Amino acid sequence: MSWSGGPHGAPEPGAVGLAARVRAGEVRAADVAEETLERVGRRDGELHCFNVVTADAMRSAAAAVDRLVASGADPGPLAGVPVAVKDNLCTRGVPTTCSSKMLEHWVPPYDATVVTRLVAAGALVVGKTNLDEFAMGSSTENSAFGPTRNPWDTSRVPGGSSGGSAAAVAADLAPLALGSDTGGSIRQPAALCGVVGIKPTYGLVSRYGLVAFASSLDQVGPFAATVADAALVLEVIAGHDEMDSTSLDRPVEGLLDATGSGAGGLRVGVVADFLADASADCASAVRAAAEVLAGAGAAVEEVALPELLHGLSAYYLIAPAEASSNLARYDGVRYGLRVDGDDVEQMNARTRAAGFGPEVRRRIMLGTYVLSAGYYDAYYAQAQRVRTLVARTFARAYERFDVLLAPTTPSVAFPLGAKTADPLEMYLADLFTIPSNLAGHPAMSVPFALDPQGLPVGVQVLAPALGEVAMLRAAGVLEAGAAPGARGPVASRSEAGR
Amino acid sequence: MAVELSSEEVLHVARLARLELGAEESTSAARQLSAILEHVDAVRALDLGGIPPTSHPLELVNVLRDDVERPCLDRADVLAGAPAVEDGRFAVPRILGEAP
Amino acid sequence: MSTGPAPAGAGRASADFEVVVGLEVHCELSTATKLFCGCPNRFGSEPNTQVCPVCLGLPGALPVLNRRAVELAVRVGRALHCEIRPSTFHRKNYFYPDMPKDFQISQYDEPIDVDGYLELPSGRRIGIERAHIEEDTGKTTHLGGGGRIHGADRSLVDYNRAGVPLVEIVSRPDMRSADEARAYVAELRAILVASGASDGRMEEGSLRVDANVSVRRTGSDAFGTRCEVKNLNSLRSLGRAIEHEQARQVALLEAGERVVQETRHWNEDEGRTSSMRSKEEANDYRYFPEPDLVPLAPDGAFVAAATAGLGLMPAERRARLATTVHGPDAAVAASTLDQITTVVDLGLDDLVVEVVERGADARLALARAANEAAQSPEDARRLDPGAFCRLLELEAGGSLSSTQAKSVLAEMLAAGGEPDAIARRLGYEALGSEALESAIDAVVAAHPDAWARYAAGEDKVAQLLTGQVMKATKGRANGKAVAAALAARRG
Ligand SMILES: [Zn+2]
Hints:
The structure holds three protein chains of three kinds. Chain A contains 18 helices and eleven strands. Chain A is α/β, with parallel strands linked by helices. The two termini of chain A are 21 Å apart. By secondary structure, chain B is mostly helical. Chain B has a domain at 7-44: Histone, subunit A (Orthogonal Bundle), CATH 1.10.20. Chain B is 38% helix and 9% strand. In chain B, strands 2-3 form a two-stranded antiparallel sheet. In chain B, a hairpin with a 2-residue loop joins strand 2 and strand 3 (89-93). The longest helix of chain C is centred in the middle third of the chain and has 20 residues, at 235-254. Chain C contains 16 helices and 15 strands. Chain C has three domains: 17-281, no CATH class; 314-425; 433-490, Orthogonal Bundle (Arc Repressor Mutant, subunit A), CATH 1.10.10. Chain C has a nine-stranded mixed β-sheet with strand order 3-6-7-10-1-11-12-13-14. The A-C interface holds A 89-90, 96, 98, 103, 106, 108-110, 112, 207-212, 214-216, 242-246, 321-322, 324-325, 328-329, 331, 333-335, 344-345, 348, 368, 371-373, 376, 380 and C 53, 56-65, 91, 93, 95, 97, 100-103, 155, 157, 284, 286-288, 291-294. Strand 1 (64-65) of chain B pairs parallel with strand 2 of chain C, so a sheet runs across the interface.
């Protein structure tokens, strides 16, 4: 069984169709669980999408769904659909490591709100997926537990930081996954793995239980093989949460419907400045995508928004500053790793030096520096002004456009180890995704093309705050017009060649 | 506006951040941080005089909860992940200074 | 903000110097739950039983602000004549094991209450710079080394108190003596209790005081270098610590040395302050706006609802009582001022105002409240105003002697009841004039010499005769009535 294909001739593919078949009693959730676990068992040794697979919990969740179906009760919109959860989302009784030695053995006593909502909707949690440590990175190579490999080419990275979730969907180990996006951590790996990834409007999805990296930028969102599946997950996890002060109290409606309602009359701006900084393949994919939208009745035009490119620098001041504070609590006192010392200060310092990997330490140092006395105004306050500049630039653009179209990434998936020596090189991977985080706007990556090596190329649709409906309309059209074979799931070449 | 952090500055930052850092590491950290700061230095050069800072993407105000009790965690769960426990409390090595 | 001259008695250590004191008072707010989570705000539970993911700083947990804490902060602001302003929360970053997140959420450059004042019983106003909301820390117990931090070999942390809501009230450096600092804290405590913000229990740590103390040459406008003194757990410690610190700083200056700006720890047993081990580097708290919270902007409706039912504050009650006793604008004698302060402190001013409105003698009412009723204030607050008023009437009208009236009042405080009935039960029924005259007959007959001297105009003998009449009537006679009868008989 494949979640995204329709080998049985089912009316709807993917998670939407699978949930419908489970709800109708045509497919048993227990069988879905067993097939999923079998596939994970076969593939994940090589790919390392998962830090932990929660087989027992998945089986009992499946049994519960089947009992509900048998009793005639509503098992929820994601009934029996497997979902992989990024390992920086808290799961009660299941280790939540953030792919860090610091939290290697930490077991939360509570569930993140998004996990609670998925489970209540009937989804089956497969396990916790690998990430760059504390979500800091763009390749998943910063995991303390080893990198995840890209299912399209296992010598390449899946992107990051939500690389495990993106690769799991791309390798068909789960039709759905959750990630978090602080500067592109959903969209960039989605693009590199040929799957759909959405970063929702800031505040649309609760952050309660998401281990914080940079609180004013972090947002949870879905991965899926199809735009409709991603929209369905977003409908399930979005909505007000009284446990998160930054949660928006607005109804969330019409997302799934939007994916099929076409792009007629949509005003689309193509961000010209990003094209110049993208590889030829990534830029030409955007141009082709623009044509597809124009062909579907959208009004497409190029727009110059050069100020957005300042976002990267601002981001690498703001995100580390917030992270330096958010990660202070890992001090060896209450949970997680402790390395002993003669006094509490030495214990703290040794614990943190040993528990955090080099990139996390680097960002903590950077963030501490830019907040420290004498530098705050020059760096942090100035970066916050750039944030205003970015928001105003977007606001100007959205007076003329409903959505913007841009490359998701400057290049396709790069080989493992290609950028680990130079952090700055790695940071550039987020150049096109960061502005949406700074402004709190939604944006998503849609798999659209293949490069000459057969690697997937994603295009990015950006929208103003709460502009998810317009964004999903455009995404649905792009999906329909994408190059054949541009989207996952894919059997990795190494497996296919074996 | 080249930025050059000295290894003393880096050690100061490491103390503030409670990260143990050897002398050798401080040199390479100084180099890396300087390189990053140099890269983001364009931000400092921008003339943004009339633009107010944004600390948050939302314009919400007054998000408040009612003063109503919710269940606490069981103490077993509270202490389950603790590196050292004594007498129902979290044990730490000696503390050298008073809280500031 | 401060008005009026510095009171006499300042600069006890040397007439050439005066002490300048500003106080920072941390007050735990009387909410049902903590500042950012639903854990109970309760003192004295088993360690680490009142914690949740939020106040334990678990990864992923987020703060949500307690509406009641904001309301109480608004009430405190109003009671201190502050402006209530839009405010934001910041993170104050420093590592300490009693702080679960290793940062404290606190209001920094935009506090909720700014620019107010507090009026002392003396009439002097002490400026309030600001009052802001912040979260409390956990509690640390030091093991080994006799329970002190220095010399301990390990420490244990209990986070039950972590996240309890505090307001920190920062005065301007307007106090000029230890006595004034004590009066300020006593007055502030009364205001906090009156506004419903706090239970005011200093000994349980509900109220914690840090003092900024400096000295300067008398007449100078410039401030001297200040020291912050911590660990002041009672009004007594506060006063002693300020006097000690004043003397220490004056001695340094007189010896030609400098005062070093630092934090000092008050040791109650040794009666002195000592330098707290200063870190090799200054604290750098790296404040930045708390991204997990949104700004507070209390509008008029919020402030009105929060301050609804806010009664008169002590200074206003003292003013009301002074007007009741003396009429408006009258100068009040120091002894009366003390009585007024006592009555307001004990919450007996409503009683006094009510009985005066019912026609009781104002000075007598104030005196009985400040002296006798004040001996058992809880009983006094339960006293029936009608009964108290009747008692004052009996005393003022001469039906009861002041000694009798005090005994009747003691009985009323202990067991309640009507003063007439109590007086009867105690045998204080005023003697009829016939009975009084016959008692006087008997005394005159028994002491003819004394009577002769009195009749001849020797007034001081009246005392002796009155005493004998009182004795003969077993105290039932009214002294004034006896004196009047004797005078009438002499003609
Ligand atoms: Zn709590």
